[in-house]
Design goal:
Strand order of the largest sheet: 1-2
Structural class: alpha+beta
Strand content: 5-15%
Number of helices: 2
Distance between the termini: 41 Å
Radius of gyration: 13 Å
Order of helices and strands: EHEH
Number of strands: 2
Helix content: 25-40%
Length: about 70
């Protein structure tokens, strides 16, 4: 399964990708999808050995969560 051609969805808040047989190399498409408001991403039941492609995104979500706590 591939995420190639994943659309730009800047208003999306939740993305459910569980049990899609995704593997390493599939997540790069999400980096270009402008998921600016994404706060929940479910990847359970896939075949990843690493989630390095999501590290910049996870850092951004953490920053948003932390700033909400600080406000």
């Amino acid at each position: 399964t591939s995420l190639e051609g994943f659309p730009s969805l800047p208003s999306l808040k939740t993305l459910e990708l569980s049990d899609n047989q995704l593997a390493d190399g599939c997540l790069e498409a999400l980096q270009d999808a402008a998921l600016l408001n994404l706060s929940r991403l479910s990847l359970a039941g896939n075949r990843f050995s690493t989630l390095e492609a999501l590290e910049p995104r996870v850092d951004l979500v953490w920053q948003k969560m932390w700033s909400g706590v600080q406000s």
